[in-house]
Input
Amino acid sequence: MQLLAVGLNHTTAPVSLREQLAFAPEQLGQAVMAARAWFERIDPVGSDEAAILSTCNRTELYAASHVANPLDAGGHFLADFHKLNYAELRPHLYMLPQHDAVRHTFRVASGLDSMVLGETQILGQIKDAIRTAEEVGGLGTYLHQLFQRSFSVAKEVRSTTEIGAHSVSMAAAAVRLSQRIFDKISEQNVLFIGAGEMIELCATHFAAQNPKSLTIANRTMERGEQLAHRFGAKAMRLADLQDRLQHYDIVISCTASSLPLIGLGMVERAIKARRHKPMFMVDLAVPRDIEPEVGRLSDVFLYTVDDLGKVVQTGMENRQAAVAQAEAIIETRVQSFMHWVDDRAVVPVIQTLQESSEAMRQMELERARKMLAKGEDIDAVLEALSKGLTAKFMHGPQQALHRAQGEERAQLATLLPQMFRGRR
Output
């Protein structure tokens, strides 16, 4: 069984490619089942495992497979599922086997591979992805153990290091960028599109600046009103966005929509109605909520999730000591997990040995019972039983030793006496 992690993230691919490879939440279950079927079509031996993590910064396939070249198969699956050209996608993919895949999983869960170093949101996203994979039967012994250990590692890293102490969140970066455009956020009207965790975080940061007004636009009015109530904001339907966009100076969007919600024409009309007063827009969604062409408008300052990522990289030197400590913890836990994997690999061998030994025991026991039934002396029967068991157990090793040559025979000559050394 081969462990692997195949995917791309904010360091290997721009948002324009990441959005093409992103899985919508409602797709994940179907995609996990498709991944398992993909591997099992290549090699139907055994039962393959799969899980998919898809966020604004990464899309990754985790798997445990019997396929001869599972990494290449995983890359082809991602391209095929999204109908992308594999040759064009391949340069952006990382393909990690065995312990490299384990190390990557632990680093992702611990926030070391995130755009915002040490951020905690990724752990919840992994748990959601694993829950979905488990619901559709994607998890088996290997991936279940891998992700359970990744949660433990993440907890250890966060509790014993200061990995998140100096982090700058995407929400804080959005506030910082908006302050470059507007001197006082307290004089601006702010619109949030969506009602998920990232929007909630952004609303918290912007609310602290006491803006002129806060509005939550969401497809589901009830969820929008719940979030709006927390911040003393207003709520509106997403369907009303086109008619009301011109009233907002700052627009932050992060939804799970597969298509853009705000097009070039909508923003052009809003800017015209605003008499070309500047508009600051942040698109944190992948796939994007705002058409990229909007950024070409002279009165619009549009930032994507990648743009904010550059802002949050500041202050890295303050975190290097914590990173080194976290990496050391992860490396130790990787070795521990790989030891468990190695132990799993010999389980079938142990089971075979136990089954053959049990067959020998039953055979000699039956022979002894027949001797006793004939009235033979019990000491003679026990003697025959012990000699018969010894002969059967020794037959295989002796034959192996006789057939072996050179280095193999030398190894057996060293190992066999250790295996049969009696307890004192």
The mean pLDDT is 90. Strands lie at 2-9, 49-54, 58-65, 94-97, 189-193, 213-218, 234-237, 250-253, 279-283, 300-304. The radius of gyration is 30 Å. The first strand starts at residue 2 and ends at 9.
